Amino acid sequence: MTPKQKFLLAGIIILAVFFRYFQITHMPGGLFPDEAANGLDINLMQSGHLQPFYERGNGREALFFYMLWGSVEIFGKGPWQHHIVSALIGVLSVLMCFLVARRIFTFKVAEDDKDGQNRAVNIALLATFLMAVSTWHIVLSRTAFRAVCIPLFASLTFYFLIKTYQAVTNKKRIIFAVLTGASFALGFYTYIAFRIMAPALFAVVVWPMLGAFRQKLLWYQIKKYFLPSLGFLVAFLIVIFPIGKYFYDHPGSFIGRAGQVSVFNPELYSFNGEQLQGKPPLGVVLPVVVEVARVQIMGFFTQGDLNWRSNISGQPFLSQLYSPFFAIGLILITLLGAWYFFAPNKKEKYWPYFLLAVWFWGMLLPVVTTAEGIPHGLRAIGVIPAVFIISAFVLYEFGSLVWKAHQKLWGRVLSHYKDPQWMKDHALVPPRMRLINAGLKLVVVCFIVALSSQAYLAYFVYAANSPENFYYFRSDLTQVSKYLVDRCNQSVAKNGESTKNSTYLVLDKFSVQTTDYFTSDPHGNFNSPCNVPYIQVDPEDSWKLQNLKSGDEVVFTQSSMFDTKKFKAYHPEFSLAAEFRNQFKQSILAVYKIKETKNIQGKTQTSCENYTFSNCPQSCQTLCVPSSCSNDGACTSDCGDVPGSCVAAEAAAPKKSVSGYDDCIKNNGQTGIKSEAAYCKINNKYYYAPVPAGTVN
To answer: Of the given ranges (194-198, 440-444, 620-624), which has the lowest mean pLDDT?
Structure first.
């Protein structure tokens, strides 16, 4: 590499770091429950429960969790503590894109071929830049999903594989083969979609053997790569053993969620309103696969994933500034790869294109064989390096054609001068050519600035000002968790009591993973009084809460805010005690407490005088005292019929005068029965008496 190329590479990596770490503590502002589920497995690690695979959420490979664990131990629990790890993996993936792209295009290029080496470096630099400013990869790098590891380990595997082929000594071949086996095996600890690398690697390794067989060089190839192959196999088996043993002991965990969303799952099909029984026929599955593939491919050019956790919602995966070049490149790479497939011995130089074609189409299989959330940005993450390498290849070749046309034009201009060589040697360029030279350089600069600006505006302006983006990451749960922990800590500091049994969190069971994680003890002391200090309540059941007492708090989150209406209708004794809003003025946290209390007979009781017989809240029923009944049996503060209330007091003491009740009946008052006591309402007062025999409400 020239000093200029090294400088450009350093600048691109700095750009990648900027886009993945700038404002990382604010964007994304929360931890989605699937991200937080990783944290709950970190809790298991802190408890000494170490394993290569965790069953939570249909099963999760654990390599990424161990990386997160280090960050949590150093910085504590929070959204950015997770996101800085995925951002680091994103930066390393960008660097690996450069290394593997350079190796792909120097596959059969001699070390002393300066033009060939320079071409490979330039294509690699361009691919690295495209990946560094890709909003698709930026979003995924700032989302703490374990799938972010796939581009890194896929690139590592192919990089060491090519280094193995390019090694000039057997010792180096063995070393790089061992590294290939280790990186390939580590990929199986990342995300289920990496498993497609097995047939992909098999294809790019075994298919050249067919060409060697036809050329009667198979024995030579076996002899040359026998020890490296053995090293690859040993390294692979050693690294893969823990997770391999786990799947052997838990065979049902091997498929996990893949079986649920697969196009071969019969539960996804119905005919004439009836569930399909048995495996769907190929004639049914094939059209689904074709349509899914079409929509996914179009996602690169038109509308991409709508999920903010995988993409800038709705925007194409690739910028329109270069997506046409990717389209051309995909067609070209596929054709060249197919040409190599059918003639590996004659088209040996096309092996790099065959590798790129296998990489892209192979890693796209996890998407096209599923029928959920298409186009899917996360499931297609394995194709990311290949996409940018293919795009860069065509862009560079297009630029080379333009430059050659420019050079040809410059040659024609020089031919009109008496001594063109002298002018060329002395760099005497005519004004017209100077203008063209400047124009070409300006186009390159504008392309770089435009892509960088587009990425910045899309993520740090558009996404940063989108309420949906923050909600997709459940940023409200960060504030909710902080409130719950602070409330408990204050209670423990004040009177030594936890708030676990007096705090009700209205949140669904999936989303509660985030608050469970954030409110768990950061140091692994899960016996702490403030470890998960609340009782989870399903939003649709919040109105059913019973036996609430003064001092209890019912906490609603952004997703359960709608349920406050029904809760208040059934619990009017509760009022809003605190509310938090986000930067978009949306309510993200609402805390409800029992209304202000007053002193009755020297005791602090809930004020009940504002309630009538028909809407008496349960807490008021529990706390009202008999003294709120007048001497003639009328309740000045009617609040129910539970033991200790006015109604119950009158029903239990029929010896008291009931003349008020009789007068009410004579004057056509409203009558009814409540807990073995008859009532009559007139002039907004209630009168009670024992239930007469045969009385009907």
So the answer is: 620-624
For the cut 60, the answer to whether the pLDDT of residue 286 exceeds it is yes
Backbone angles phi, psi at 176, to 5 degrees: -70, -30
CA 232 to chain centre: 33
CA dihedral for 86, 87, 91, 97, sign (positive or negative): positive
Which residues have a Cβ under 8 Å from the Cβ of 415 and sit 6 or more positions away?
Answer: none
Burial per residue of 43-57, b for 16 or more beta-carbon CB atoms within 10 angstroms, e otherwise: bbbbeeeeebbbeeb
Rounded to two decimals, what is the model's pTM? Answer: 0.81
Distance CA 449, CA 446 (A): 5
Q: Specify the higher pLDDT residue, 114 or 346.
A: 114
Secondary structure letter of residue 496 according to DSSP = S
Q: How much is the pLDDT for 608?
A: 45
Q: Facing residues of 54 across strands?
A: 60
Do residues 618 and 570 touch, judged by C-beta distance below 8 A? Answer: no
Give the β-pairing of 685-690 and 597-600.
Answer: unpaired
Phi-psi region of 256 (alpha: psi -120 to 50; beta: other; left: phi over 0): left
Strand 503-506 vs strand 553-557: parallel, antiparallel, or unpaired? parallel
Amino acid at position 32, single letter: F
288 in Cβ contact with 263 (< 8 Å): yes
Note whether 192 and 205 are within 8 A (CB). Answer: no
With CA atoms as reference, report the closest residue to 604 among 545, 546, 547, 551: 551
18-36 pLDDT tens trace: 999 999 999 888 999 999 9
Residue 373, judged by CB atoms within 10 A of its CB (0-12, 13-18, 19+), counts as middle
pLDDT digits (tens, 9 = 90+) for 358-405: 999 999 988 888 767 788 899 899 999 999 999 999 999 998 898 888
d(CA 370, CA 301): 20
Most confident of 92-106, 575-589, 609-623, 647-661: 92-106
- Count CB atoms within 10 A of the CB of residue 374: 19
What is the reported pLDDT for 320?
93
Q: What is the distance of C-alpha 315 from the center of its chain?
A: 17
Q: Using one digit for the tens of pLDDT, what is the confidence trace for 103-161?
A: 999 988 888 888 889 999 999 999 999 999 999 999 999 999 999 999 999 999 999 99
CA–CA distance from 158 to each of 171, 173, 200, 359, 474 (Å)? Answer: 19, 14, 10, 9, 37
Spatial separation of the C-alpha atoms in residues 616 and 638, rounded to whole Å? 8
CA angle 224, 230, 231 (to 5 degrees): 100
Taking each helix axis from N to C terminus, what angle separates 282-298 and 351-368, rounded to the nearest 10 degrees?
Answer: 110
Quick one: which of 26, 23, 29, 144 has its CA closest to 83? 144
Cβ 356 vs Cβ 337: under 8 Å:
yes
Structure tokens at 68: 């997160």
Please name the residues in contact with 154: beta carbons below 8 A apart, sequence gap of 6 or more.
187, 194, 197, 359, 363, 382, 385
Whole-angstrom CA distances from 352 to 26, 119, 334, 528 are 41, 14, 11, 57
Which residue is associated with the tokens 């007139």?
682
Q: Which residues pair with 61 in a beta bridge?
A: 53
- Cα torsion for 176, 180, 183, 188, to the nearest 10°? -170
Which whole-number Å values give the CA distances from 563 to 473, 570, 590, in the listed order?
Answer: 21, 11, 11
pLDDT of the residue at 264:
63
State yes or no: pLDDT of 214 exceeds 80.
no
Give how far the C-alpha of residue 643 lies from the chain's centroid of Cα atoms, to the nearest Å: 52
Q: What is the pLDDT of residue 107?
A: 87
Give yes or no for a contact between 623 and 597, defined as CB atoms under 8 angstroms apart. no
pLDDT of residue 654: 38
Q: What is the dihedral of CA 272, 273, 278, 280, to 10 degrees?
A: 60
